[in-house]
Amino acid sequence: MQPTHRSNRILLPAQTWFVYLTLVIALTLSYIPTGRLPGVPDWVAVVLAFWCVREPMRVGMGTAFVFGILVDIGHGAAMGQFALAYVVLAYLATSVSRRVLWFPVLQQALHVLPMLLLTQGIMVVVRLVGGGEFPGWWYFLSSFSGALLWLPLSVLLLLPQYRPVDRDENRPI
Amino acid sequence: MTMSLAGHQAPPIFKRGPTPLARLLVFVAVCLVMLVVDLRFRYLEIVRQALSVVTHPLQLVAAAPADFIRNATVYFATLVDVQLENAELRRAQVQAAQRLLRFEQLERENHELRRLLAMAQTTAVHSVAAEILYDAPDPFARKVILDKGVRHGVTAGLAVVDARGMIGQVTRVYPVQSEVTLLTDKEQAVHVKVARNGVRGILVGSAGNRMEMRFVGTDADIRVGDRLVTSGLDGIFLAGLPVAQVISVDSEGEAFHKVFAETVAQVERTVQVLVLGPEAPRAPRPDPATELKEGEGRAPSTGRGG
After folding, report:
1. How far is the C-alpha of A120 from the C-alpha of B227, rounded, in Å?
2. B87: how many CB neighbours lie within 10 A of its CB?
3. CB B160 within 8 A of CB B170
4. Cβ-defined contact of B24 to A88 (cutoff 8 Å)
């Protein structure tokens, strides 16, 4: 696979354990108690969308469902709230993955933004129907910070795949 | 079919189960069922408890930075601040001590009088001191997380009070933490009575930091400034905990007063709290049929007095 489809560089294949490790790290980050601070990105959603775009054959709605349930439990949210939103996010991200990777990273982030907004929109609708209270428009700020996060993530999460194919005795990694 | 790598249409021999759209619909249906079962019937608490075994270690790791910041503010508090606070606490303690002396005597007296009148004894109070760690991450509800859980004797349903009055109710317990729904939450209701004359009603969280007292008939005597305390009739809270103060009463041609109240406790700002509940589990509700047969002519006892 290439960094983007326009690139000539061929990357190493992604390791399955690394994909799940990053998802678990994102899950841990999402558990950091930040209270009502607006604009804290939804780490799991962004990392999930990233792997759904990069590796649609491995990460999809099943993974989204499992991690959604784990976020639901950790946040004390309604069971299925995050799961529902993430499943829809995974569906959209996998279905646009072939298109998105033709764009440079900034425009990829612009593709991801509406998906993240929809994810949050689904959760708002679900909870308002369930008798919750509207959290205010600042709530949607986290989609924007999440989309910004796409830029560093698309370097960080691909780092292991940038390694050269042949091993060098004098190089640590 | 659309789920293939860039530009390659997957040939039929590599077909991988149902189409993405079909799988999406299945997952969405499962999620919707879970949501209804959880929000409407609260059946999934056991599943939540079981799976929280998986998430708990990660939560501990994630809480470390927050703990560090909270502790750091304590380390860097100045000596002057601490001395001022200490003086304030000493003054408060002296005031509390003399009231406590009278309280012990009154409690003994109350006990004796109740025995003479053959009334049900007031239950002993079970209390756990706790600290509010942080706001719960769920932005759709007003909840906070306490640093005490099942291991410290906290159970779901207990009242949570600060020095001035009630702030909320424990709604979910974890091994070493618990979740408290604040009184200002839309879904949180308390059965209260007016301390002055015992007019009863149900207090529900409302927009802003206010609460609305519902089902107070227009003939009831209720005024601005009245103190509202828990009635104890719900069988969950102890009777007589201060809850709120009436700030407006409006009765324009309705069957019920429109009563708004403000909490007496500093619901959104307090840190040190007490989890309060009756010591013994409450007696099961009497069956109305047997009640009629056994105690004809007698007024049914409420089980717990004020």
Report:
1. 41
2. 10
3. yes
4. yes
Are A65 and B27 an interchain contact pair (Cβ–Cβ within 8 Å)?
yes
From the list A60, A79, A130, which residue is nearest B48 (CB)? A79
B170: pLDDT confidence band, cut at 50, 70 and 90?
very high
Q: Which of A115-119, B267-271, B285-289 is the least confident region?
A: B285-289
Residue by residue, DSSP assigns B222-242 as --TT-EEEE-STTSSSPTT-E
Q: Which residues of B touch A94 (CB under 8 A)?
A: 3, 20
Name the DSSP class of B39: I
The alpha helices in B152-287, defined as continuous H runs, are none
B185 touches A at CB < 8 Å: yes
Domain tally, chain A? 1
H helix intervals, B117-264: none
CATH topology of domain B124-279: Thrombin, subunit H (2.40.10)
Q: Are B284 and B290 in contact (CB under 8 A)?
A: no
Residues of the domain holding A141: 16-162
Report the chain B residue with the minimal C-alpha distance to residue A137: B139
Of B31, B39, B136, the CB nearest to A87: B31
Which range in A67-76, B105-114, B173-182, B215-224 is most confidently predicted, on average pLDDT? A67-76
Residue A169 belongs to some domain of the structure: no
Whether B25 contacts chain A with CB within 8 A: no
Res. B105: pLDDT tops 70: yes
Q: How many residues does chain A have?
A: 173
> What does DSSP say about strands B200-205 and B210-214: parallel, antiparallel, or unpaired?
antiparallel
ipTM: 0.88
Residue that is written with structure tokens 């910004």 in the block: A148
Q: Which residues of A touch B142 (CB under 8 A)?
A: 133
Interchain contact, B20 vs A94, CB within 8 Å: yes
**Torsional sign, CA B57, B58, B64, B70:** negative
How far away is chain A from the Cα of B31, in angstroms, using its nearest Cα? 5
Closest CA to A117 of A62, A55, A45: A45
| Domain extents in chain B | 77-122, 124-279
